[in-house]
């Protein structure tokens, strides 16, 4: 039950309310005990999975002086949208096998620190009291980053590239989605020498993600200004909204784009261009204006 509440993000308060509505005595301080048991088991399992992933990825590469140079993708995510999130996650994924090799969480928030500050404020204790408590709490504090939410992804990349040699691995090809901040941070480790000294990091581009990024930029820029009855000017996005260029449509375009690229490896550029163009027509087709006349007519076709 504690694990289920942690999984859905309800926490202690959510479980307390649920048990109260069921007329069941709440766990009280036992919740923290069971929570720590679940977290310890989860961390052990994650470490085992990551170790197996690194071991499997090494079989795909040839060691150079006992170190494996790998081609990886890096991506980050935040707890919530916008630039106000207090939690972020970065992960390194081996590009050929799709295995997660390592991950890092970055936090600008510590719940225990916030609670302690509130308690001291109620007791009218000075700031020195909190600083004294923080010395003992430092090793357990969940806040490990000070800066903007947007910079948390680059911080995760910095930590991941900085410790890759612990597994005798170098991430020598860095595939990104066009945002170079994480790549730049990794290259600037050790006073600009990079994480691996003479072995430099090569930057690769994920063309599928670059397509999505470019289309989203176009969608945000195409706007129409309309004046309301009160005289206010509203900016309306013409390409967004229902039955237009939504996120799901962009993701679909990215999938088909990737399929077209993989099918035409080693083929002619004209065939690749046509396959990509056909996917655009397929996604823009409607019941009134059907655009399937150029879709491929073969067994492995993505058009039904």
UniProtKB/TrEMBL annotation:
- InterPro entries, alphabetized: Mutator_transp_dom
The Mutator-like transposase domain extends over 2-303
Q: Which domain of life is it from?
A: Eukaryota
Q: Which Pfam families match?
A: Mutator
The name this protein carries in UniProt is Mutator-like transposase domain-containing protein
Q: Which organism is it from?
A: Petrolisthes cinctipes (Flat porcelain crab)
């Amino acid at each position: 039950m504690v694990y289920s509440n942690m999984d859905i993000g309800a926490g202690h308060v959510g479980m307390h309310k649920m048990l109260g509505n069921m007329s069941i005595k709440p766990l009280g301080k036992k919740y923290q005990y069971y929570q720590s048991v679940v977290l310890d088991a989860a961390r052990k399992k994650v470490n085992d999975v990551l170790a197996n992933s690194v071991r499997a990825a090494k079989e795909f590469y040839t060691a150079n002086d006992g170190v494996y140079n790998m081609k990886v993708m890096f991506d980050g995510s935040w707890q919530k949208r916008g630039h106000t999130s207090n939690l972020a996650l970065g992960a390194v994924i081996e590009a050929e096998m799709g295995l997660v090799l390592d991950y890092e969480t970055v936090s600008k928030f510590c719940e225990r620190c916030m609670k302690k500050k509130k308690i001291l404020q109620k007791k009218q204790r000075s700031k020195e009291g909190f600083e004294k408590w923080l010395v003992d709490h430092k090793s357990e504090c969940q806040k490990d980053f000070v800066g903007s939410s947007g910079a948390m992804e680059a911080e995760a990349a910095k930590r991941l590239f900085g410790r890759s040699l612990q597994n005798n691995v170098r991430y020598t090809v860095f595939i990104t989605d066009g945002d170079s901040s994480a790549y730049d941070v990794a290259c600037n480790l050790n006073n600009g020498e990079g994480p691996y000294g003479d072995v430099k990091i090569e930057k690769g581009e994920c063309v599928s993600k670059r397509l999505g990024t470019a289309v989203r930029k176009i969608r945000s820029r195409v706007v129409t200004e309309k004046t309301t009855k009160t005289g206010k000017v509203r900016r309306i996005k013409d390409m967004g909204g229902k039955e237009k260029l939504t996120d799901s449509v962009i993701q679909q375009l990215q999938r088909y784009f990737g399929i077209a690229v993989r099918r035409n490896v080693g083929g002619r550029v004209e065939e690749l261009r046509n396959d990509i163009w056909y996917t655009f027509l397929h996604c823009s087709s409607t019941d009134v204006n059907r655009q399937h006349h150029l879709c491929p007519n073969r067994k492995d076709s993505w058009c039904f």
